[in-house]
Amino acid sequence: MIDITLPLTDIHRHLDGNIRAQTILDLGRQFNIALPAQTLETLIPHVQVTSTEPDLVSFLTKLDWGVKVLASLDACRRVAFENIEDAARNGLHYVELRFSPGYMAMAHQLPVAGVVEAVIDGVRDGCNTFGVEARLIGIMSRTFGEAACLQELDALLAHREKITALDLAGDELGFPGSLFLSHFNRARDAGWHITVHAGEAAGPESIWQAIRELGGRTYWTWRKSCRRSRVNGFSCTATYRY
Fold first, then answer.
1. Secondary structure of residue 193 in the 3-state scheme
2. Which of 17, 29, 57, 218 has the smallest count of CB within 10 Å of its CB?
3. Angstrom distance (rounded) from CA 67 to CA 240
4. CA atoms lying within 13 Å on the CB side of residue 22
């Protein structure tokens, strides 16, 4: 039985992967950025996962159009605010929003620390407007390598009091967690919680590595890894769109 009077929460929502298709269209027009389609209906298949993707990287490329239109810090602030508005529309009382500032900054060479500040501002304003409680989790996008992740970490640490935890996500096979040990040491020294995307592509051995070496407390994985891993206390996705 579902008790609809209980507060509704979402503890795994990607801010930079939750950009409205209409906002992508609006910002594309505002900044004169060429998009793969010019109407909302025809744009949606390019920016949302509407069918099964062959692998993790193909799945993640669906998110690229959303960040390609982030040509200003105001645009970043807008999508952060709209994330809270959408959370309120979904009936959420509490949401944990995770975002990769380097990924959001990349297409238009925005200052990474500026992106962090813009996201913080947008989320704060959204929470004040819509009455949703939110926490922010910074993501290091492993896909772009160790140096890029270090830049993200430095930008997040510049606003450490507004960030709850550090995450690692992206191309797990190409960039294993062992490359980021020093990054997570700094995050723990800052007093942050640790959460890791593990076992999505590399299997249960990646989960064990995240536990033993990265110090993660929460692990985001999927069912094949769950079957083969004797770990208690991690989140398992029963279905995956690739």
1. strand
2. 29
3. 22
4. 3
- The answer to whether 167 and 197 have CB atoms below 8 angstroms apart is yes
Q: Which two tokens stand for residue 30?
A: 């505002």
Hey, what are 60's tokens?
A: 């993640």
The reported pLDDT for the residue numbered 226 is 44
Sheet-wide strand order for 165-169: 9-14, 94-99, 133-141, 165-169, 193-197, 218-222, 235-237
Report CA-CA distances (Å) from 75 to 49, 162, 170, 208: 23, 20, 23, 38
> Is the Cβ–Cβ distance between 27 and 70 less than 8 Å?
yes
- DSSP code for 8: P
**Within its chain, how far is the Cα of 133 from the centroid?**
18
The residue among 23, 18, 127 whose CA lies nearest residue 75 is: 23
CA atoms of 213 and 176, how far apart (whole Å): 12
The residues annotated with a catalytic role in the active site are 200
The string of pLDDT tens digits covering residues 144-184 is 999 999 999 999 999 999 999 999 988 877 888 889 999 99
What domains can be seen in the chain, in order of their start residue? 9-21+48-237 (3.20.20.140)
Identify the burial level of 26 via C-beta atoms within 10 angstroms of its C-beta, where 0-12 means exposed, 13-18 middle and 19 or more buried. Answer: middle
Cα–Cα distance, 105 to 124 (Å, whole number):
20
**DSSP for residue 142:** G
The answer to pTM > 0.85 is yes
Q: Report the alpha-carbon distance of residue 180 to residue 200 in Å, rounded.
A: 17
